[in-house]
Amino acid sequence: MDKNEILKTAKTLNEATMEIREIERLTLTYPEMSLDDAYQIQDAGIAIRLARGERQVGFKMGLTSKAKREQMNLNTPIYGVLTDVMRVQEDTAFSLKYSLHAKIEPEIAFFIDKELKGPVSRNQIIEAVSGVCAAMEILDSRFLNFKYFSLPDVVADNCSSSYFVLSNTVKKINELDLENLEMEMKINEETVQKASSKEISGNPLNSLVQLCEMLHSRGLTLPAGSIVLAGAATQAVALTAGTQVLLTVENLGNVGLRVGLE
Ligand code: OOG
Ligand code: MG
After folding, report:
1. Which of 3, 62, 88, 216 is a good FRET partner for 94, with 20 to 30 A between their CA atoms?
2. Is the CB of 232 under 6 A from ligand 1?
3. What is the pTM of this model?
4. Pairing relation of β-strands 129-139 and 237-238?
Protein backbone atom coordinates (compact mmCIF):
# COMPACT_ATOMS: atom_id res chain seq x y z
CA MET A 1 0.00 0.00 0.00
CA ASP A 2 1.28 3.52 -0.68
CA LYS A 3 1.35 6.40 1.82
CA ASN A 4 -1.97 7.84 0.59
CA GLU A 5 -3.77 4.52 0.96
CA ILE A 6 -2.32 4.09 4.47
CA LEU A 7 -3.53 7.54 5.55
CA LYS A 8 -6.92 7.12 3.89
CA THR A 9 -7.44 3.77 5.61
CA ALA A 10 -6.43 5.20 9.00
CA LYS A 11 -8.98 8.01 8.51
CA THR A 12 -11.71 5.55 7.53
CA LEU A 13 -11.08 3.54 10.70
CA ASN A 14 -10.93 6.68 12.82
CA GLU A 15 -14.25 7.96 11.47
CA ALA A 16 -15.89 4.58 12.06
CA THR A 17 -14.58 4.64 15.65
CA MET A 18 -15.83 8.19 16.28
CA GLU A 19 -19.22 7.49 14.72
CA ILE A 20 -19.51 4.04 16.42
CA ARG A 21 -20.18 2.52 13.03
CA GLU A 22 -19.16 -0.87 11.65
CA ILE A 23 -17.21 -1.17 8.41
CA GLU A 24 -16.20 -3.99 6.08
CA ARG A 25 -12.79 -5.50 6.78
CA LEU A 26 -10.00 -3.60 5.05
CA THR A 27 -8.50 -6.59 3.25
CA LEU A 28 -11.62 -6.74 1.05
CA THR A 29 -10.54 -3.42 -0.48
CA TYR A 30 -6.78 -4.01 -0.12
CA PRO A 31 -6.17 -7.76 -0.43
CA GLU A 32 -2.43 -7.12 -0.69
CA MET A 33 -2.25 -5.33 2.71
CA SER A 34 0.82 -6.64 4.58
CA LEU A 35 1.40 -6.77 8.33
CA ASP A 36 3.87 -3.92 7.90
CA ASP A 37 1.19 -1.84 6.10
CA ALA A 38 -1.17 -2.67 8.95
CA TYR A 39 1.23 -1.37 11.64
CA GLN A 40 1.68 1.80 9.58
CA ILE A 41 -2.12 2.24 9.48
CA GLN A 42 -2.17 1.68 13.25
CA ASP A 43 0.59 4.34 13.68
CA ALA A 44 -1.35 6.79 11.50
CA GLY A 45 -4.53 6.13 13.49
CA ILE A 46 -2.71 6.77 16.78
CA ALA A 47 -1.24 9.98 15.31
CA ILE A 48 -4.82 11.14 14.59
CA ARG A 49 -5.79 10.43 18.23
CA LEU A 50 -2.70 12.22 19.58
CA ALA A 51 -3.38 15.22 17.31
CA ARG A 52 -6.78 15.64 18.96
CA GLY A 53 -5.22 15.70 22.40
CA GLU A 54 -5.00 12.09 23.55
CA ARG A 55 -1.81 10.99 25.27
CA GLN A 56 -0.07 7.67 24.65
CA VAL A 57 0.21 5.77 27.93
CA GLY A 58 1.38 2.32 26.86
CA PHE A 59 0.86 -0.79 24.80
CA LYS A 60 -1.28 -3.91 24.73
CA MET A 61 -0.16 -7.30 23.57
CA GLY A 62 -2.76 -9.47 21.86
CA LEU A 63 -3.15 -13.13 20.91
CA THR A 64 -0.56 -14.17 23.48
CA SER A 65 -2.71 -17.07 24.73
CA LYS A 66 -3.85 -20.23 22.95
CA ALA A 67 -7.45 -19.52 24.01
CA LYS A 68 -7.42 -16.13 22.26
CA ARG A 69 -5.65 -17.40 19.17
CA GLU A 70 -8.29 -20.12 18.85
CA GLN A 71 -11.16 -17.71 19.53
CA MET A 72 -9.99 -15.34 16.80
CA ASN A 73 -8.55 -18.07 14.54
CA LEU A 74 -5.24 -16.20 14.21
CA ASN A 75 -1.86 -17.42 15.36
CA THR A 76 0.65 -14.63 15.96
CA PRO A 77 1.06 -12.23 18.88
CA ILE A 78 0.42 -8.60 17.93
CA TYR A 79 0.56 -5.24 19.69
CA GLY A 80 -1.54 -2.09 19.89
CA VAL A 81 -1.24 1.30 21.58
CA LEU A 82 -3.07 2.51 24.71
CA THR A 83 -4.01 6.16 25.26
CA ASP A 84 -5.21 7.99 28.37
CA VAL A 85 -8.75 8.27 26.96
CA MET A 86 -9.00 4.47 26.84
CA ARG A 87 -8.49 4.10 30.58
CA VAL A 88 -11.66 3.55 32.60
CA GLN A 89 -11.48 4.03 36.36
CA GLU A 90 -12.42 1.06 38.50
CA ASP A 91 -15.20 2.72 40.44
CA THR A 92 -17.08 4.51 37.65
CA ALA A 93 -19.93 3.00 35.61
CA PHE A 94 -18.91 1.98 32.11
CA SER A 95 -21.35 2.98 29.37
CA LEU A 96 -21.89 0.72 26.37
CA LYS A 97 -23.12 3.76 24.41
CA TYR A 98 -19.73 4.20 22.74
CA SER A 99 -19.22 0.55 21.78
CA LEU A 100 -20.46 -1.59 18.90
CA HIS A 101 -19.99 -5.10 20.28
CA ALA A 102 -17.80 -4.82 23.36
CA LYS A 103 -16.11 -7.85 24.89
CA ILE A 104 -14.05 -8.08 28.07
CA GLU A 105 -11.04 -10.24 28.92
CA PRO A 106 -8.83 -10.94 31.95
CA GLU A 107 -5.29 -9.57 31.81
CA ILE A 108 -2.27 -8.59 33.89
CA ALA A 109 -0.74 -5.12 33.53
CA PHE A 110 2.83 -3.95 34.11
CA PHE A 111 4.12 -0.48 34.92
CA ILE A 112 7.47 0.15 33.22
CA ASP A 113 9.76 2.58 34.99
CA LYS A 114 12.81 2.51 32.70
CA GLU A 115 12.98 2.72 28.93
CA LEU A 116 13.52 -0.70 27.31
CA LYS A 117 15.46 -0.62 24.07
CA GLY A 118 16.19 -3.41 21.65
CA PRO A 119 15.80 -7.13 22.34
CA VAL A 120 15.71 -7.55 26.12
CA SER A 121 15.87 -10.45 28.55
CA ARG A 122 13.28 -11.33 31.18
CA ASN A 123 15.72 -10.09 33.83
CA GLN A 124 16.05 -6.69 32.18
CA ILE A 125 12.28 -6.47 32.14
CA ILE A 126 12.03 -7.42 35.82
CA GLU A 127 14.46 -4.58 36.62
CA ALA A 128 12.38 -2.10 34.61
CA VAL A 129 8.99 -3.03 36.15
CA SER A 130 7.88 -0.85 39.05
CA GLY A 131 4.54 -2.59 39.63
CA VAL A 132 2.08 -5.25 38.50
CA CYS A 133 -1.71 -5.26 38.74
CA ALA A 134 -4.86 -7.13 37.71
CA ALA A 135 -6.44 -5.61 34.62
CA MET A 136 -9.25 -6.12 32.14
CA GLU A 137 -9.29 -5.07 28.52
CA ILE A 138 -12.49 -4.08 26.74
CA LEU A 139 -12.22 -4.95 23.08
CA ASP A 140 -14.41 -3.56 20.35
CA SER A 141 -13.71 -4.24 16.70
CA ARG A 142 -14.71 -1.69 14.09
CA PHE A 143 -15.39 -4.56 11.71
CA LEU A 144 -18.81 -6.03 10.93
CA ASN A 145 -19.83 -8.55 13.61
CA PHE A 146 -16.36 -8.37 15.21
CA LYS A 147 -14.99 -10.51 12.39
CA TYR A 148 -11.84 -9.54 10.59
CA PHE A 149 -10.38 -12.86 9.45
CA SER A 150 -6.81 -11.59 9.05
CA LEU A 151 -3.94 -10.25 11.16
CA PRO A 152 -3.51 -7.09 9.02
CA ASP A 153 -7.15 -6.13 9.60
CA VAL A 154 -6.94 -6.42 13.38
CA VAL A 155 -3.51 -4.77 13.63
CA ALA A 156 -4.68 -1.81 11.53
CA ASP A 157 -7.65 -1.47 13.91
CA ASN A 158 -5.23 -1.07 16.86
CA CYS A 159 -5.80 -4.74 17.74
CA SER A 160 -9.46 -4.14 18.69
CA SER A 161 -8.34 -2.15 21.69
CA SER A 162 -11.05 0.06 23.07
CA TYR A 163 -10.82 0.57 26.83
CA PHE A 164 -8.96 -0.90 29.80
CA VAL A 165 -9.35 -0.91 33.55
CA LEU A 166 -6.58 -1.40 36.09
CA SER A 167 -6.82 -2.51 39.69
CA ASN A 168 -6.04 0.15 42.26
CA THR A 169 -3.94 -2.48 44.05
CA VAL A 170 -0.42 -2.57 42.61
CA LYS A 171 2.12 -5.18 43.73
CA LYS A 172 5.90 -5.38 43.45
CA ILE A 173 7.10 -7.90 40.88
CA ASN A 174 9.28 -9.81 43.38
CA GLU A 175 6.20 -10.59 45.49
CA LEU A 176 4.70 -12.68 42.68
CA ASP A 177 5.10 -16.03 40.96
CA LEU A 178 3.93 -14.67 37.62
CA GLU A 179 3.97 -18.08 36.00
CA ASN A 180 1.29 -19.48 38.17
CA LEU A 181 -1.41 -17.08 39.33
CA GLU A 182 -5.00 -18.21 39.16
CA MET A 183 -7.21 -15.76 37.28
CA GLU A 184 -10.99 -15.91 37.60
CA MET A 185 -13.43 -13.56 35.87
CA LYS A 186 -17.02 -13.39 37.13
CA ILE A 187 -20.07 -11.67 35.73
CA ASN A 188 -22.76 -11.04 38.32
CA GLU A 189 -20.93 -13.44 40.63
CA GLU A 190 -20.96 -16.30 38.16
CA THR A 191 -17.59 -17.55 36.89
CA VAL A 192 -17.34 -17.00 33.13
CA GLN A 193 -13.60 -17.55 32.56
CA LYS A 194 -10.84 -19.11 34.62
CA ALA A 195 -7.18 -19.81 33.78
CA SER A 196 -3.64 -19.65 35.08
CA SER A 197 -1.42 -16.68 34.23
CA LYS A 198 0.88 -19.15 32.48
CA GLU A 199 -1.67 -19.16 29.64
CA ILE A 200 -0.28 -15.70 28.82
CA SER A 201 2.81 -16.59 26.76
CA GLY A 202 3.86 -19.25 29.30
CA ASN A 203 4.62 -16.33 31.63
CA PRO A 204 3.24 -12.80 31.10
CA LEU A 205 6.85 -11.53 31.20
CA ASN A 206 7.40 -13.34 27.89
CA SER A 207 4.73 -11.07 26.37
CA LEU A 208 6.89 -8.10 27.35
CA VAL A 209 9.96 -9.72 25.78
CA GLN A 210 7.95 -10.18 22.58
CA LEU A 211 6.66 -6.61 22.70
CA CYS A 212 10.22 -5.24 22.99
CA GLU A 213 11.28 -7.41 20.06
CA MET A 214 8.41 -6.22 17.89
CA LEU A 215 9.00 -2.56 18.79
CA HIS A 216 12.72 -2.97 18.11
CA SER A 217 12.06 -4.53 14.70
CA ARG A 218 10.12 -1.37 13.85
CA GLY A 219 12.83 0.96 15.20
CA LEU A 220 10.85 1.79 18.35
CA THR A 221 11.47 1.43 22.10
CA LEU A 222 9.26 0.86 25.12
CA PRO A 223 9.25 4.26 26.88
CA ALA A 224 9.67 4.73 30.61
CA GLY A 225 6.26 5.34 32.22
CA SER A 226 4.44 2.87 29.93
CA ILE A 227 1.60 0.63 31.03
CA VAL A 228 1.67 -2.74 29.27
CA LEU A 229 -1.23 -5.19 29.08
CA ALA A 230 0.33 -8.62 28.57
CA GLY A 231 -2.64 -10.18 26.73
CA ALA A 232 -5.71 -12.10 27.80
CA ALA A 233 -5.40 -15.44 29.60
CA THR A 234 -8.78 -16.67 28.30
CA GLN A 235 -11.29 -15.96 25.58
CA ALA A 236 -13.13 -12.64 25.71
CA VAL A 237 -16.75 -12.46 26.90
CA ALA A 238 -19.49 -10.16 25.52
CA LEU A 239 -20.36 -7.25 27.82
CA THR A 240 -24.01 -6.63 28.65
CA ALA A 241 -25.69 -3.62 30.21
CA GLY A 242 -26.37 -3.61 33.92
CA THR A 243 -23.85 -6.30 34.83
CA GLN A 244 -20.92 -6.34 37.23
CA VAL A 245 -17.64 -7.87 36.05
CA LEU A 246 -15.01 -8.86 38.57
CA LEU A 247 -11.58 -10.32 37.94
CA THR A 248 -9.63 -11.88 40.79
CA VAL A 249 -5.96 -12.64 40.26
CA GLU A 250 -4.30 -14.74 42.96
CA ASN A 251 -1.92 -12.64 45.11
CA LEU A 252 -2.65 -9.61 42.95
CA GLY A 253 -6.20 -8.74 44.04
CA ASN A 254 -9.36 -7.71 42.25
CA VAL A 255 -10.40 -5.37 39.52
CA GLY A 256 -14.05 -4.64 38.84
CA LEU A 257 -16.15 -3.00 36.17
CA ARG A 258 -19.75 -1.92 36.60
CA VAL A 259 -21.52 -1.79 33.25
CA GLY A 260 -24.17 0.96 33.16
CA LEU A 261 -27.73 0.42 31.95
CA GLU A 262 -27.03 2.18 28.67
C1 OOG B 1 -7.53 -9.05 19.08
C2 OOG B 1 -6.93 -8.55 20.35
C3 OOG B 1 -6.49 -9.68 21.24
C4 OOG B 1 -5.64 -10.28 23.57
O5 OOG B 1 -5.49 -9.94 24.75
O6 OOG B 1 -5.39 -11.43 23.18
C7 OOG B 1 -6.16 -9.25 22.62
C8 OOG B 1 -8.99 -9.42 19.22
O9 OOG B 1 -9.33 -10.33 19.99
O10 OOG B 1 -9.80 -8.83 18.49
O11 OOG B 1 -6.30 -8.14 23.03
MG1 MG C 1 -6.36 -8.09 25.24
Report:
1. 62
2. yes
3. 0.97
4. unpaired
